[in-house]
Each structure stands twice: as structure tokens, then as C-alpha cells.
Amino acid sequence: MVAPTARVTTIERFILDQEEKYPEATGELSNLLYDIALAAKIIAASIRRAGLVNILGSAGATNVQGEEQQKLDVFANQTLTQALNHTGRVCVMASEEDETIIPVPDNYPVGRYVVLYDPLDGSSNIDVNGAVGTIFSIYRRVTTQGPGCLEDVLQPGCKQVAAGYVIYGSSTMLIYSTGQGVAGFTLDPSIGEFLLSHSRIVTPRVGRYYSVNESNFARWSKGTQWAVRGFHGDRPEEIRGKNSRYIGSLVADFHRNLLAGGIFMYPADTKNRHGKLRLLYECSPMAFIAEQAGGSATDGTRRILDIVPTELHERTPLVIGSREDVGYVADTLRRMGEE
Questions:
Q1: How far apart are CA 317 and CA 26, in angstroms?
Q2: Is the model's pLDDT at 121 over the cut of 70?
Q3: Structural domains of the chain in order of their starting residue, each with its CATH number
Q4: With contact defined as beta carbons under 8 Å apart, do 218 and 224 qualify?
Q5: pLDDT tens, residue by residue, 52-87
Q6: What percent of the chain has pLDDT over 70?
Q7: I need a labelling partner for 84 at 20 to 30 A (CA). Which of 78, 116, 236, 305 fits?
Q8: pLDDT score recorded for residue 2
Q9: CA distance 212 to 165
Q10: Is 298 helix (H, G, I), strand (E, B) or coil?
């Protein structure tokens, strides 16, 4: 509960203050961010009550990725789509849960923005009350008229005008950037508002933690194995060892590392030769946040934000977090001849 005498900045007030710095701003992007914040509140409320309203467990279907859908996956996807499709601010959407692009219904106006989202990242944590999240990415359309199309969606991450995520944990937080640094907001459930709690997030250049699923160690390349052994503390002449922390939700692991400093890795392996995480829905928006906070993101050889997608559900390896730690991994892979 916020004390009555404390200065309170709602997400709405913060966005309006930022908008005032740009006379050419129309308010459309601001309103689009409000739409996403509203959807996040609805999803957060359902997650808090999940064990009481029969919304836990499998939905009895798989998504386009071949992954088992949870009931909350479906609910979160529908909530975001319905919060955005009628506003006149978007021309097309795309979701990790849907096989094709999501058009704006014929009876609604189309706007000039494209929104991509992972409705509920880390859904395997749902039934054990683990942290999960929502990831979103916003682009300007590149076509000039009519409904949006695949061309509007398949843009490199450097073209994003905004990106962010929501983490549903011990508290609900919304983190976002419009290319002018990273701000964080915490949901106060007593008043139903996101309040500014982190005015400018800057991630440490060297982190305390490394986050990676080491059960895949035997399937990694020699360069990746060498780098992770460095994080173990086995290469003190190259890098200081770190503490291992792995939740199994990109949002949760990234959020901790963003604030405390660290590196998250999901490298390619012999089972997932092109990586496992989705470029458009997970990697590009998180890379945008990381860079705006002073961090870095790469697929091991290329900057994530420079990758031009060719498929809606394209996958990529991901190394993201504190700049010097990401640089160590990239340098190790280069040194081991993995370019």
C-alpha cells in the first residue's frame, strides 16, 4: 500500500510525461501501451485466482510449436488479442500460440502499429506456482494501406518502437522501453494501478549469475561448454565464476539478471540446431530491453536485433544479459572457431 504522502506516478502519468517531450507524438503508441497494461492486469488477476477457478492444467491441445497448451496459455492469448484488435491502433498481430498472423476483424478500423507477443512465457511453471510472464513487441507497419500482412510482421528487432514484458511473481511488474531507457512499474492491487517503481533500469556490466539449462550440456558445442565452465569458475584466468540460477522461464530469469546482473543462455544443441527460443516473440523484444538497459544480446555470432526474420516462428540461439558476460561468450565461441 502506497502511503498517501508519497509521490505516486502511475504508468499513465509516466507515459504522458514522456510523450510531452516529443511534439510530433500522436498519442497512439501511448494508448497502445495502456491497452497492453490493461490486458496484463486481467491476466494477473486470473493467475492469482488460478487454483480457485479451474484454470490450472492442460487445455488438451498443442500450439503451433508442438507444445502442450495450458489453460492459462489460451486465456492469456485471448485476453491480449481482444484487448488490441478493436482499438484502431493496430493493423495486424502475431502470437507465439497462433500458426499464422492475427488480422484485425473486418468490422474494426486498422492502425499503424504491429504487435507481437508471447502471451504466457514459462507456462510449465504454472501448476507449481512458479513465476511466469508476458512478452510484447511493437513495430510500425511498413505497408501503407489496407490490413496488415506478413511483411509488416517480419521486421528485424532494430525496427522496434517499443518492447517489454510483464512478470507475474511475488508482485506483478511491467517493464518496457520506447528506446529512451528502461522503466519498471509494479502493480498495486489495492488500487489496480501500475505505479512507477524503477525509473531508469541500468543492468551491471558484469553479472553475479548465469542462467542456463545444464541438463543439455552434453549436446552443446565445445565452445558453449567451455564458456559455461568459465561461469562454473573453472577458467579463473578468463573470467570470475558466477552463481547458477535457473527458473525455466525466460521472463523470470531475465528479470533477475536485468536488475542484479547476469547472463541467460539458451544455445543451440544437437537436438535444437537452430536454437529453441522464438526470435520474434521472445528474443528480439528481450534484446531491445537488454540493450536499452546497457546490456547485450547475441545468437553467439550476430547481434539479435540485426537478424532479419524470414519465418513467423523462426527460432534462434540466445545469449543475453550483462555486456561483458555476453562478450565473453561471443569471444569464446569465436576463439573456438564457432562463427
A1: 37
A2: yes
A3: 11-198 (3.30.540.10), 209-335 (3.40.190.80)
A4: no
A5: 445 544 545 555 565 556 688 889 999 999 999 999
A6: 90
A7: 305
A8: 45
A9: 20
A10: strand
Per DSSP bridges, beta strands 243-244 and 262-266 are unpaired
3-state SS class at 122: coil
d(CA 204, CA 259) in angstroms, rounded, equals 8
Q: Is 302 left (phi over 0), alpha (psi -120 to 50) or beta?
A: beta
Angle at 309 between CA 325 and CA 105, to 5 degrees: 125
Instruction: Tell how strand 318-321 and strand 262-266 pair up.
Output: antiparallel
| Residue 288: partners with Cβ closer than 8 Å, 6 or more residues away | 137, 157, 160, 163, 177, 305
Rounded Cα distance between 305 and 298, Å, is 8
pLDDT, tens only, 168-185: 988 999 999 999 999 999
The per-residue pLDDT for range 278-311, each reduced to its tens digit, is 999 999 999 999 999 999 999 999 999 999 999 9
pLDDT of residue 118: 97
The β-bridge partners of 94 are 116
CA separation for the pair 34, 131 (Å, rounded): 23
Cα angle at 251 between 65 and 45, to 5 degrees? 95
Write down the number of H helices and E strands in the chain. 8, 17
pLDDT of residue 63: 56
Alpha-carbon distance of 31 to 28, in angstroms, equals 5
- Strand residue runs (E) in the chain: 58-62, 68-70, 90-95, 102-103, 113-121, 132-140, 160-168, 172-177, 183-188, 193-198, 209-211, 243-244, 262-266, 277-278, 296-298, 315-316, 318-321
Helix (H, G, I), strand (E, B) or coil at 161: strand
* pLDDT for the residue numbered 22: 65
Nearest residue to 253 via CA among 331, 321, 339, 304? 321
pTM of the model: 0.91
* Contact present, 258 and 133 (Cβ < 8 Å): no
